Amino acid sequence: MCYIDDLTSDKDIEKCRDGATVVYLSPQWGKDLTPLLGALLFCDLDKSVVYTGAGLVCKFDKSKTEKRQELMELIEDVYRKVDMFRKSNPWNY
Fold it and tell me: Which one of 4, 69, 86, 93 has the minimum C-beta count within 10 Å?
C-alpha cells in the first residue's frame, strides 16, 4: 500500500510501485476537486477507483507520473483563469 498526501511533491509518489494500492487523503477538507485531480495524476483509471469528497483509493499507474508536472501546470493555469474571471465578474458569484 502507498500513501500520498501531497500532489505537488515527488517524495510520496516515488515510493509507490506500479500497481500498488494508493490511498490519497486531501489536506484541504471540503475541496472535492482535489481527490479527482489525484485520480487524474496517478491512478490507473482502467481499474476501480473509490472516491469520496475527502480522498480516494486506487491502483497506482507509474506511467502517469511522467506527465504529472505537465498536467499540474495545466491545472494551475485553469485555476488562475477561473480566479481572474471571478475577480472580473463579481456579480456572477
Answer: 93
Q: Pick the closest to residue 73 from 81, 61, 63, 84 (CA basis).
A: 81
Q: How far is CA 65 from CA 16, 31, 43, 77, 93, in A?
A: 10, 22, 10, 19, 35
Asked if residues 31 and 13 have their Cβ atoms less than 8 Å apart, the reply is: no
User: CA dihedral in degrees (22, 11, 82, 34; nearest 10)?
Assistant: 20
For residue range 14-63, list pLDDT tens digits in order.
Answer: 889 999 999 998 876 656 778 888 888 889 999 999 998 788 999 999 88
Backbone phi and psi for residue 47, each to the nearest 5 degrees, phi listed first: -110, 175
Cell 516515488 locates to 14
